[in-house]
Design goal:
Structural class: alpha+beta
Shape: globular
Strand content: 35-45%
Number of strands: 10
């Protein structure tokens, strides 16, 4: 029997869809992001649907790799999960008009006091596609150097407690597979970086590769 729902003949690439949103209102306005309610038409659903969506600015993250193939990890406190988790440097795209690659370089300097000469796009991630517009672009940064003291910033809030660790990629991969690292962005960055290293850092996407999704 033929399965009419089979996608074997559909290209293995996420598809942007231009749906008609006929009603949109803000149901919660927060300090960092809002929650909006949208009603839209989706033909395969048989009519109109209404969904509450976390309207997120999007974010950037950095897999910084040094000449010894070590990845830079940082540990900081995250209140929603009550944990100090291991992450890669990352931050919101919350400055109007700022190029995302510039934002990534800024975050790398602010959180780890380093800079990089070589930049590529490593991965894109929809953090919660069923409920949030957030898309995180993870960059690969190589050619690492210490940021001059005059260009460093004073960390505030949770970032004051950041611990920095350069970790061999193989060890980081083992930690991900063992469940010792649970931060999704860090896991994706580590696994992608390790795969890129195995391929000799070839076939990397350019730093200005198009962003996925119609809202970015």
């Amino acid at each position: 029997m033929k399965d009419t729902r089979s996608g074997t003949d559909v290209p293995l690439s996420d598809e942007s869809v231009d749906v008609e949103v006929h009603e949109r209102s803000t149901v919660y306005r927060g300090a960092v992001w809002d929650v909006v309610r949208e009603s839209f038409d989706l033909p395969e659903a048989g009519g109109a649907l209404t969904r509450d969506v976390l309207a997120h600015t999007g974010a950037v993250a950095v897999a910084a790799i040094d000449d010894e193939d070590r990845v830079l990890l940082i540990r900081q406190y995250r209140h929603p999960i009550r944990m100090r988790d291991w992450e890669v440097p990352a931050g919101l795209r919350d400055i109007d008009g700022e190029d995302p690659a510039v934002a990534a370089a800024r975050e790398l300097g602010e959180e780890a006091d380093i800079r990089a000469e070589e930049w590529h796009t490593l991965a894109d991630m929809y953090t919660t596609p069923g409920g949030s517009t957030e898309i995180i672009r993870i960059y690969l940064a190589r050619g690492i150097d210490a940021l001059p003291h005059a260009q460093r910033t004073d960390r505030v809030g949770e970032e004051r407690g950041i611990v920095v660790r350069w970790t061999p990629l193989a060890e980081a991969v083992d930690a991900v597979l063992a469940g010792s690292i649970g931060n999704a962005t860090a896991c994706l960055a580590i696994l992608h970086a390790d795969r890129a290293r195995e391929r000799g850092w070839t076939d990397l996407r350019p730093v200005d590769a198009p962003w996925p999704g119609s809202r970015v």
